[in-house]
Design goal:
This protein is an alpha/beta fold. About 45% of the residues lie in helices and about 10% in strands. A five-stranded parallel sheet has the order 2-3-6-1-7.
Amino acid sequence: MSKLTSIVGSSREINELRALIEVVGPSGSTVLILGDSGTGKELVAKALHSCSERADGPFIPVNCGAIPRELLESELFGHRKGSFTGAISDRKGRFELANGGTLFLDEIGDMSMDLQVKLLRVLQERIIDPVGSTQSTNIDVRVVAATHKNIEKLIQQGDFREDLFYRLNVMPMEIKALQERREDIPMLFEHFAKHHAKAGQPPITMMSGSMQLLIQYDWPGNVRELSNLVDRYTALYSGQQVDLRKVPSSMIPSGIRTIAETSSADALSTLMSGFADADNGAEAGALSQIDTSIEPPETVDEPVDEVQRVIMLAQGGDSFPEQGMQLKQHLLEIERNLIKQALGRAEGNVSKTARLLNLQRTTLIEKINKYGLSENS
């Protein structure tokens, strides 16, 4: 299992992936890895290589989407001196460099049709033809390919050869997106925190409420995005515990900010419901429903206004003022301010404002009239 330490996580999906790598790795079969960008396809390819009989041989990666089409053939198969302008000497291609080991062809879906034909021949006959050469060269290479694209859709569109797909798809493996295995996020955070920690400094940690925001976030950039975020916070708060409420908003992904704002609104809604129920003698039960696990971010360079202060107080994030407070008046002011802000953001559009506040339009109109707010507030 020590060879698979780079595959981090404890979810069912990751455990199944590790088990599959242990079986497929030693087989020597051609593998096609499918998964969104940033899920760690190259890590899986390296793990397959390390579990194989070729582990002592070279592991050579090639990003087919990053190399210009006119240069990719030379990169893969090599060239002979004088075969084209700039070919001042013989040069081995990636297939020859990977001889006895594994060649990882990343983003295979970006390969041109003419190169697909040549790659198919290599997989079938295990020989390559360097550019400008009149002699073929035998190779002993295991090919692991990967793509984030839908290959079957590319085949239907005529952009990928069906026979090449079947040659590559001997052992298909799929890596699930991070949002489909959220339970792995705390472990991945810890792993990247140790990786990015500065010399002599302990790895950063995350407050529990802030970690809940990370777990709720969808991570469109997958594991790579999480790694970059940990790298960012390590640079800003080396060796510290990170509290997203104290992180500048520009340093927080917009999706996480949205989740935090929604959570704050939900907490306020619960608080307002508690106030309404309190009139019926049910304040204790209603207030106990407030979610204290979410910690909304605030910028460090902006003052905390009264609305934010009361929300933080409701979530246990602030101390209760010694002089006490008028709860009813505070709640009314909070509701009035939020409606005023939402009207401003919606440019006075009542329907849009109602959607922003998750209220019925008629209810919103009643509150606008109640607080003496105009639609142009």
